[in-house]
């Protein structure tokens, strides 16, 4: 069977780092075109205008939206209305309501829509969920610290409205938390550090129900810390390290899934397309919105790249 054709829209860091290699290895997909204002992928046709691509390439059945969240809605809407399946980088949009509107459009057109959370495909995440199933969470600690200059070099959009600031990586942790916990939690308190003159936070401390706390910092030097620990009333202790890719249960290192995060996302998208199904879970983004609604805003040192 020939592979299904996909077009990447927004050829930046994540498209080059993850999407292009994942599609190259995929048994389901073939990269048939890109839409890019300035970039390119060697050997792949480029369109500078999204409308032209939709018009001229009816053979491309899926678009993979890899731009920052602020522009996602306008591209997703056009693609859905043109009857294309849509896969979206995280976070799926800049507001909850605009993503809900996309779900309505996908239902109406009978096409697949996937709001991806790549960290949920971390190799230890399914095992962590299984280890916690049916148990009562009594404590949790999320530590998500990295260097914004390393992971978002020069990307001013992360400090623009809708860019989410430190929640851009923090939402990855929340996508894991909302996947593995047997019962949902909710934000009860938050403090957000905004660099003077910037629109989004660079650090945050958040408390949730069931004793879960989260510490986010975008100024950590050296190796990132992407760790989640959860304890239960039954005495189980689950530790996820390296962004969900290494699992320890009660002090023992557990085997993980074979498949890497982005290949797993493209495999899942192929299933969704087969079923014309929608996979959009907004619970990680709901926690971010709640932290912004409830959080005390503190002003800290100015930041520049
Ligand atoms: P990026 O390199 O700054 O931007 C990606 C590309 O999006 C740009 O190169 C540009 O592509 C396009 N773009 C930028 N602004 C746009 C706009 N206003 N309208 C239309 N297109 C626009 O960002 P990134 O790091 O790849 O991140 C993109 C998304 O992936 C974000 O949602 C981020 O959370 C997610 N993500 C990033 C990472 C990471 O390590 N950076 C990891 C996982 C997920 P063209 O020049 O081709 O038009």
Automatic annotation (TrEMBL):
Keywords: Oxidoreductase. One of its GO terms (molecular function) is nucleotide binding. The keyword Signal does not apply. It comes from the Bacteria. Residues 5-114 form the Gfo/Idh/MocA-like oxidoreductase N-terminal domain. Its EC number is 1.1.1.46. The keyword Aminoacyl-tRNA synthetase does not apply. It is an enzyme of class 1 (oxidoreductase). Signal peptide: none annotated. InterPro entries: Gfo/Idh/MocA-like_OxRdtase_N, Gfo/Idh/MocA_oxidrdct_glycsds, NAD(P)-bd_dom_sf. Pfam families: GFO_IDH_MocA. This is L-arabinose 1-dehydrogenase.
């Amino acid at each position: 069977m020939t592979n299904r054709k996909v077009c990447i829209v927004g050829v930046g860091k994540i498209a080059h780092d993850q999407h292009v290699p994942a599609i190259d290895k995929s048994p389901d997909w073939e990269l048939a075109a890109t839409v890019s204002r300035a970039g390119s992928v060697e050997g792949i046709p480029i369109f500078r205008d999204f409308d032209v691509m939709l018009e001229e390439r009816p053979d491309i059945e899926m678009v993979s939206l890899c731009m920052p969240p602020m522009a996602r809605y306008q591209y997703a809407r056009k693609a859905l209305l043109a009857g294309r399946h849509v896969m979206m980088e995280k976070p799926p949009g800049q507001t909850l309501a605009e993503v809900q509107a996309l779900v309505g459009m996908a239902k109406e057109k009978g096409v697949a829509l996937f709001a991806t959370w790549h960290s949920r495909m971390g190799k230890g995440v399914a095992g962590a969920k299984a280890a916690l199933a049916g148990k009562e969470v009594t404590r949790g600690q999320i530590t998500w610290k990295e260097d914004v200059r390393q992971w978002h070099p020069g990307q001013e959009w992360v400090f623009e409205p809708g860019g989410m600031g430190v929640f851009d990586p923090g939402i990855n942790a929340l996508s894991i938390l909302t996947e593995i916990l047997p019962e949902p939690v909710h934000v009860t308190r938050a403090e957000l550090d905004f660099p003077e003159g910037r629109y989004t936070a660079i650090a945050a401390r958040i408390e949730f129900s069931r004793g879960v706390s989260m510490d986010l910092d975008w100024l950590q030097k050296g190796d990132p810390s992407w760790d989640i620990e959860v304890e239960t009333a039954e005495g189980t202790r689950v530790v996820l390290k390296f962004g969900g890719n290494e699992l320890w249960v009660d002090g023992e290192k557990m085997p993980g899934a074979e498949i890497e995060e982005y290949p797993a996302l493209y495999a899942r998208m192929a299933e969704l397309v087969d079923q014309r199904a929608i996979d959009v879970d907004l619970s990680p983004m709901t926690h971010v919105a709640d932290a912004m609604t409830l959080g005390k805003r503190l002003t800290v040192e100015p930041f520049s790249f």
